[in-house]
Amino acid sequence: MNPTIIFALSILFLPLISFVFQIFFGWRIGRSAHWVSLICLGIVLALSMGFFANAFLIEDIPILMDSVTWFSTGDFTLTLGFNINQVAAIMLVVVSLISFLVHVYSTEYMKGDPRYNRYFGFLGLFTFSMNGIVLADNLIMMYVFWELVGLSSYLLIGFWFEKDSAADAGKKAFLTNRVGDIGMFIGIMMLFFLFGTVNIEDIVYEVSLGIADGYMALLTTAGILVFLGAVGKSAQFPLHIWLPDAMEGPTPVSALIHAATMVAAGVYMIVRIFAFLTPAALQVIAIVGAVTALMSAIIAITQNDIKRVLAYSTISQLGYMILALGVGAYQAGFFHLTTHAMFKACLFLASGSVIHAMHHGLHTVKDHHTDAQDMRNMGGLKSRMPVTYWTMLIATLALSGIPLFSGFLSKDAILAGTVAYFHMHHGWTIFLPIAGFGAAVITAFYMFRLIFMTFHGTPAKPDAYKNIHENTLPMTVPLMVLSLLSVAIFFTLPGLNPIVNHGWFTHLVSTGENYAGLMMEETVEGIHHAHGTAMTISLIVAALGVFFATLVYYLKKIDAQNMAKAMNRVGLYNLSFNKFYIDEIYNTVLYKPFFWWCFVFSKIDWDYFDQKFIDGWGWVTLKISEASGYSDYNWLDQKLVDGFGKLAHYFSNELKQTQSGVIQNYVMGGVFGLLIILIIFQSI
Amino acid sequence: MDNLTSYLVISGILFSLGLFGVMTRRNGVAVLMGIELILNAAGLNFIAFNRFGGMHRLDGHVFSIFIIVLAAAEAAVALAIIINLFKNLETVDIDQADRMKG
Fold first, then answer.
1. What pLDDT does A259 receive?
2. Quick one: which H or E segment has residue A562?
3. Contact call for residues A66 and A82 (beta carbons, < 8 A)
4. What domains can be seen in chain B, in order of their start residue?
5. Nearest to A671 among B19, B95, B98 (CB)
6. Looking at the predicted complex, does its ipTM rise above 0.85?
């Protein structure tokens, strides 16, 4: 076998080995069993790096394309295969790097948890499934792993299932994802119906040949339905409600699954199928992305739970990526996925570090009521936790789109994409750049609000504050690595200009191809032209956001309470604080009517159908059985069956007389019988 | 008179006499005699058909010799049975030999 395939299989299955080991043997070994997981993930990381290096050597063509037949029925053959192109190679590194760092981080964060080994097992299961999505060459295989990441997400969100809120959050995540997944499955089936294959490369090839030219409406519908899967998995409006609740899981899990990798799977999937998405489908994608980006950014302003702010920030940034793909800025969308994975994982791990230290501090002073995740209980942590502070600040700068940091490059490219889209389409599409820039202001604002509330000012709990210390190396080293990777220079290499995003990334990832009618060349051209404008505006808006946050939360020139009251004159503050009432709307529009219908149907079913109809039939059956039993016993049994018995008895009694034992009688019978036969034959 | 019919008539008379004896007599020896008559009637038939049946071989003769031998053997066995019957029941009346009747 080709060694490349063995490497790819190792990337896929080593985390699964880690899972099996931890689940079946880990608990016997105890804490030191995490070395097995670490070694597995280390090898996966090294192999992914190998593929990544390979991506530079082999340009433009996939590094590995191979498949085996899973099963075939009739004309249809389903294959399982790998397609590692440049995009997948980058994604592999992102997934395995963050997964490895989260493993390292968790050895400290989860220390002393009674289900320590199970936790590492689940992380392995997740990494296995995520790598499966990255490597898959067809949509069915992707869907299988898609469901597997959903499962591992469910298991990890509900990891502390003793808490009802965690168990509920797991269920909510799983069920909300199902809504999207059903759409995705129908979309895959439509694509199969159109093209007779589910292999992504084959579909792209057939679209490029113009086979689907007469079926553009179908292709659009299929594209939107498949995108629905991404809406669920990448927490886009209106299915974003599960992600904030998913913060009930352990914080390293939030970093790995709900910030960097799994939620990016939806974006990655759109990147893979981008070439056959029609302009109409892309427009829907762009609108969903823009709405999500703006709305969840607004919600993030008013949240007080440090992880919830980051969760809404994640939704907002995922909205950016989706928006980028929707406006045809293919490269920018995937670029933002990569940079965002690094700095958002860093932010989550840093917030985990803060929460861990807060827990410790509060625990020491025996304060069990204060919420360790509420930013209002923090403050002034900068001097206590310098490493966490500086790494988190770097990641915040990156997220806010400040030059010299990675987020600036990618966000800038996305905003250029929206501006270019507006230039091409005019009209209502002005909403897209407005949403983009608006979200950029708000992002800078709420991120610096988070930093100031957590690390600056006066400590809210002075007793606990004295017992807060910086965490140990297993937690700080991943932070340092990730914050280092949030610096722009890593993405512009070999170029050293930190505000121009031409580097190895743009070299590896093409500007995208679309065979379903989107004019890529003009789009790319437009993005190129819009670049300067977008960069200027985004610099201004980022500065604006940071400035306001400084004014309100650092210098305290403006009182936050007063500002909230002022905003509330038009209901804005409450709208944001209550997350646009979307959970309440779902509750009123969907769940309550649903439960009401459930009640009605159960009443009809039980009181009428079951009690009257089914039990009625039972009564009828009983009566019929009684009559039938009566006739059976009295007539059939007593008369007919016994009658035959009596008949046989009677005849045998009669015939018994003939067996006299007198041979002469027998002979006589024989002779007369013979005579009769002779006479009969004579007469014939 | 020298034709098949007269032989068959004689043979038929012999057979009927034998059958009549078998059916009517209770004495085992008499029944045996009736059987002998039936066998002889059959033997006579064989000879008659051999002569008038257009066959120039000796099949009929051979058969009748077999029948004679058979009759002799049968008589020996049957008489032995009757002697045993007599020894056990002190009668040769076959109607009395009904011990196995249920």
1. 86
2. helix A560-568
3. yes
4. 4-96 (1.10.287.3510)
5. B19
6. no
Q: What is the pTM of this model?
A: 0.76
Q: Dihedral of the CA atoms A157, A159, A160, A166 (nearest 10)?
A: 20
CB burial readout A516-533, b (16+ within 10 A) else e: bbbebeebbebbeebbee
Length of chain B: 102
CB hemisphere CA count around A286 (13 angstroms):
31
Residues A264 and A87 sit within 8 Å (Cβ to Cβ): no
Does A647 have pLDDT greater than 90?
Answer: yes
* Least CB–CB distance from A661: residue in B19, B23, B98: B98
Give the end-to-end CA distance of chain A in Å, rounded to a whole number: 91
Spatial distance between the Cα atoms of B50 and A175, rounded to a whole number of angstroms = 106
Instruction: State whether the Cα torsion A56-A57-A62-A63 is positive or negative.
Output: negative
* Residue B38 Cα, gap to closest chain A Cα (Å): 13
- Tell me whether B98 touches chain A (CB under 8 Å): yes
The whole-angstrom separation of Cα A40 and Cα A32 is 14
Closest CA to A33 of A46, A17, A51, A49: A17
Residue among B23, B98, B101 minimizing CB distance to A664: B23
- Indicate the pLDDT class of residue A457, thresholds 50, 70 and 90: confident
**Chain centre distance of CA A320:** 17
For residue B90, the SS3 value is: coil
Q: Are the C-beta atoms of A396 and A344 separated by less than 8 Å?
A: no
| A12, A80 contact by CB (below 8 A) | no
Give, in order, the Cα–Cα distances in Å from B26 to each of B20, B29, B98. 12, 9, 13
Contact residues on chain A for B22, CB-CB shorter than 8 A? 664, 667
Per-residue DSSP letter, A552: I
Out of A138-142, A639-643, A679-683, B95-99, least confident range: B95-99
Judged by CB atoms closer than 8 Å, whether chains meet at B98 and A664 is answered as no
Burial B29-49 (b: 16+ CB within 10 A, else e): eebbbbbbbbbbbbbbbbebb
How far is Cα A490 from Cα A52, in angstroms, rounded to an integer?
15
Query: Which residue bears the tokens 């008559």?
Result: B37
What pLDDT shows up at residue A651? 93
Which residues are registered as beta bridge partners of A65?
A83
**In chain B, which residue's Cα lies nearest the Cα of A669?**
B23
Distance CA B63, CA B43 (A): 7
**Rounded to the nearest 5 degrees, what angle is found at the Cα of A258, between the Cα atoms of A367 and A115?**
55
In three-state secondary structure terms, A397 is: helix
Please write the tens of the pLDDT for every residue from A367-398: 777 788 888 888 788 888 888 899 999 999 99
Does A15 sit behind a cis peptide bond, omega within 30 degrees of 0 on the bond before it?
A: no
Helix (H, G, I), strand (E, B) or coil at A523: helix
Confidence at A619, pLDDT banded by 50, 70, 90: very high
Choose among A98, A87, A83, A359: nearest CA to A202: A83
**Distance separating alpha carbons of residues A491 and A331, to the nearest angstrom:** 13
Q: Is the pLDDT of residue A43 over 80?
A: yes
Q: How many residues does chain A have?
A: 684
The rounded distance, in Å, linking the Cα atoms of A45 and A535 is: 34
